[in-house]
């Protein structure tokens, strides 16, 4: 009978430390989770630079253009090429104008893949220039090494 | 006494299973959605459409010209700054920029020196960023010393 009662003890092991640990883990991941990931795109791997710092004030009226490795441009979830990008930009500019701002207030943020050709990025800039956009930001990853 | 015993026994044998189920679900959710945030910054480039302000431009105030050449794989082969050949050494490029503009009083804002980057079409973008990094400044300890802030691109070469 004594042996039996020992088995019962084993089955009701103390769960307190495990629950403590699990709650700690949950708290850790909850604090670090970042839902504001809308700016990034899985197809883009940014180049890095030691000189950039995360901006203290976010850019006003950003138009975020992702340039994938094959030169395809992603704007607001839609795929464009350098030839069709004009249409996408005009849509964005219509929104900005509706808010009573001029085209010059907009900032074009270019998030290009590090292995894409420089010419593709230049084409993106050229198309945006044709829409009277003039403020560009080349987005890069901060390199602390 | 009997009633008391019963109550205590029930309390200590509280069923944890459902709570642990939910807690593990939460844990799995947070682990799966977890992503390390990479800090990002911008190099700003102001490029109005060519010709719009060419009337006001001073012809003596020409920008520095950085020419980047690539092989067919997009790898950088040669760089030249104002016709000075620099090979592929970005430190050499930075040293030349320092020599050309001086570091004693870095001019900020609109009147600072300007550089025009003329790159081969198929050069990998990474090299462009590395050259922009080299010309726009360098790190001295934790301080960033700025060199050229006005950067523009030449017409794309096809």
What structural class do you assign from the helix and strand content of chain A? alpha/beta
Q: What class, by secondary structure content of chain B?
A: alpha/beta
Q: Give the topology string of chain B: H per helix, E per strand.
A: HHEEEEHEHEEE
Low-confidence stretches of chain B: 52-56
Helical proportion of chain A, percent range = 25-40%
- Counting DSSP E segments of at least 2 residues, the number of strands of chain B comes to 8
User: What's the story with the biggest beta sheet of chain A?
Assistant: 6 strands, mixed
Physical arrangement of strands within the biggest beta sheet of chain B: 4-3-2-5-8
How many distinct domains of chain A? 2
Number of helices of chain A: 4
Given this structure, which CATH class of the largest domain in chain A is correct? Alpha Beta
Number of helices of chain B: 4
Number of domains of chain B: 2
Largest sheet of chain B: 5 strands, mixed
User: How far is the first residue's CA from the last residue's CA of chain A?
Assistant: 65 Å
CATH architecture of the largest domain in chain A: 2-Layer Sandwich
Binned, the helix content of chain B reads 25-40%
Shape of chain B: elongated
> What name does CATH use for the topology of the largest domain in chain A?
Nucleotidyltransferase, domain 5
Radius of gyration of chain A, rounded? Answer: 25 Å
List strands and helices in order, with pairings:
The complex is a heterodimer of chains A (145) and B (158).
Chain A: H1 2-11, H2 16-32, E1 48-49, E2 62-67, E3 73-75, E4 78-80, H3 85-98, E5 107-112, H4 118-130, E6 135-142
Parallel strand pairs in A: 1-6, 2-5, 5-6
Antiparallel strand pairs in A: 2-3, 3-4
Chain B: H1 2-12, H2 17-33, E1 40-46, E2 64-70, E3 76-81, E4 84-87, H3 90-101, E5 114-119, H4 125-136, E6 137-140, E7 143-146, E8 150-153
Parallel strand pairs in B: 2-5, 5-8
Antiparallel strand pairs in B: 2-3, 3-4, 6-7
